[in-house]
Amino acid sequence: MLSRPEFELDVSAVFDRYIDSQQKQWAHDRSQSVGASEIFSCMRKNWFSKIGSKKGYEKDPEHNERWGAMQRGNLIEDYHVAPAFANCLPEPLEALYIGQENQTTLVDGRSSATPDGLITGIPPGKVRIKARGREDIIIKVGAEGCIGLEIKSIDPRANLHEARTKHHGQSQVGMGLIRQQTEYKPNYWMIMYVDASFLDDMKIFMVEYDDDIFRSAQRRAKLIFDAKNPTDLPAEGKYTHDCDHCPFTEACREAVFSKYKQMEIDGDDEVDDAAALAMAPLVEEFLHAREELDEADFKVRELKERLKSQLEQLNKRKVVGENWKATWSTRKGAKRIDKKLMREDGIDLDKYEVEGKPFDTLLVTIQD
Fold it and tell me: Is the pLDDT of residue 26 over 80?
């Protein structure tokens, strides 16, 4: 039997302290604006992040802040991509705002962006963007003679056919603020995804400027800071999956239940003409969407069985097409605790049962 250790070395804690010591120092107070990389994530999450602590809300005590992907991205940007663009672009091109020492935060009201770079000196006309192993991209550059740059690292297992929505939005904010506050007027933004395993494998997407998206981002930022309470903002994380990694899930739940307690108590099932008139369009849209979802779910399950039958007829477990792959496999069932067996062994489970965390739910039914 091993004796009790006298000293403990927590390797993870060592790296946690290192990452804390390496955090970038920004001239701009990032708590006073919503950054381009944040603005199209959950509005309520942004409210908690920027304002919540001043209102007495804290991060979830059990939330584990993972920094691995962030550090991976920093290393690839700072020591691989930024130096390449800064030092090896062909003449007459030049990279501005690139690398930690040269990055500039642009701020307008409650909106901000820190572009990863701006490539200038591009001759007007058709420009071919090439990357090894990828289809060429043709864009038309005018007198602006520049394109923006967004650098992202990506897991090699990711199946990426287009730029991710949040990165598309981030690019729009970057373009908008550069156009608004500098002499440069980029119409295109290059989003570069660098494979985290093979650094020479790059997926490039070009985003064209859309002023409506930029203005939408500015409105969202203002709404976040104008909100007095988190429940004044939509819980977008419920359908964007931001809740899966949000450090404010407990604070959000607390705010929702606090608001719920203040609301009018249910009365008799009498028709409320004014309230019904206000809600009717959204209820009808919801019921229609739910019906379409049920039909789509049925169709997906039906097609799955038909695909399995076809694989059976072909006597194959996997068929690979030009841009798809169909694989039929079996998996072991997940391990679980068999409560029936435990009770049969005389184990009292009642003392181990705890009440789950409360949650809110919405039920919409069709009345006869």
Answer: no
Determine phi and psi for 96, rounding to 5 degrees.
-110, 160
- The pLDDT score that the predictor gives to residue 2 is 64
> Cα separations (Å) of 220 from 33, 35, 223?
11, 11, 5
3-state secondary structure of 61: coil
In a domain, 117, yes or no: yes
| Whether residues 180 and 41 fall in one domain | yes
Please tell me whether residues 173 and 29 are part of one structural domain. Answer: yes
Q: What are 195's strand-pairing partners?
A: 154
Cβ neighbours around 33 below 10 Å, total: 23
- Please give the tally of structural domains in the chain: 2
Q: How many CB atoms lie within 10 A of CB 277?
A: 9
* Pairing between β-strand 188-195 and β-strand 202-208 as defined by DSSP bridges: antiparallel
For residue 332, pLDDT over 70 is answered with: yes
**pLDDT, tens digit, for every residue of 155-209?**
988 888 899 999 999 999 999 999 999 999 999 999 999 999 999 999 999 999 9
195 is written with which tokens?
């494979």
